[in-house]
Amino acid sequence: MQSDAMESPARDRLAVHTITTKPWGLAEAADRYAASGVSGMSVWVEAIEGMKNADVHSTLQNAGIQVPALVRGGFFCDSSADERERRIDHNRRLIETAAEISAEMLVLVVGATPGEPLERQRGWVRDGIEALIEDANSHNVRLAIEPLHPMYAADKSCINRMADARVLCEAVRNPMLGIAVDVYHTWWDPDLDDEIRRAGLLDALFAFHICDWRVPTRDLLTDRGLMGDGCIDIRGIRQMVEAAGFSGWNEVEIFSEEHWARDQQQFLNDIITRYADC
Ligand code: ZN
To answer: Contact at 8 Å (CB) between 255 and 222?
Structure first.
């Protein structure tokens, strides 16, 4: 096994998203992560499809794995009010799932639908979150709004800048609501440093997701890079969130056809090495 880098105390805060090692099922991922010294796993809904929440919980517990987040809920935006109501109900079930697998938070990709003004859609997002906040509170599951890069504004997220997420947090004003800062989605933002500081003042920095932006990017969804293989100043952004008071998990979230095609244990070893460098 690896040596000094593996014993680094910083690795206490390393978590990996199940989507990162998609070819592994939940149990194998839990065992492999634990054996490699990675104690955090953010669980994608797709990774537990068809499993009972109690079985998910015991699988993770037995491996000694903690769960920063269930990923992902949200998708509040639809022109039909009935459909928006259905989606809020779906999120209620996701909050229950998060509680049952001992996830600290539910990540919200807030959604977007083509043809509606983004400002109106952000109102739907606020309505959705306000409808869920009591559920979040009673289940002790925090809600983390994840701003997505503007290339996804048409159909995945009407919240694209940290400022949009921060304004929503200020409007709802609830300690259960905060922000997931993903370097892939936010690195380009000229206001990033200031917005991270403002989110910190609101106690709203809930999560920090890392990967890298490949140049060129060959696919807008499934070509994320391993830390160090792209242009993002990950270390600089990490210093910003830490200066703003964040002390939670560093979550590695990489969707990559290239890396999924590799030996996943080798990939995990590379993640651990690169994490130590950033
Ligand atoms: Zn993310």
So the answer is: yes
Answer for the pair 77, 116: CB distance below 8 angstroms, yes or no.
yes
* pLDDT (0 to 100) of residue 10: 57
Ligand 1: centre distance to CA 226 (Å): 14
109 CA to centre of ligand 1 in angstroms: 9
CATH code (residue 168): 3.20.20.150
Greatest alpha-carbon pair distance for the chain in Å reads 55
Residues in the chain: 278
Q: Give a yes or no: residue 6 inside a domain.
A: no
Over the stretch 31-43, which tens digit does the pLDDT of each residue have? 999 999 999 999 9
Report yes or no on 1 lying in a domain.
Answer: no
Q: Cα of 276 to ligand 1 centre, how many Å?
A: 19
In a domain, 223, yes or no: yes
Give the amino acid at 276.
Answer: A
pTM score of the predicted model:
0.95
In a domain, 4, yes or no: no
Query: Which amino acid does the sequence have at 2?
Result: Q
Residues, CB within 5 angstroms of ligand 1 (ion): 182, 209, 253
20 CA distance to ligand 1 middle (Å): 11
**Average pLDDT value for residue range 245-249:** 97
- Could you tell me the distance, in angstroms and rounded to a whole number, from the CA of residue 52 to the centre of ligand 1? 25
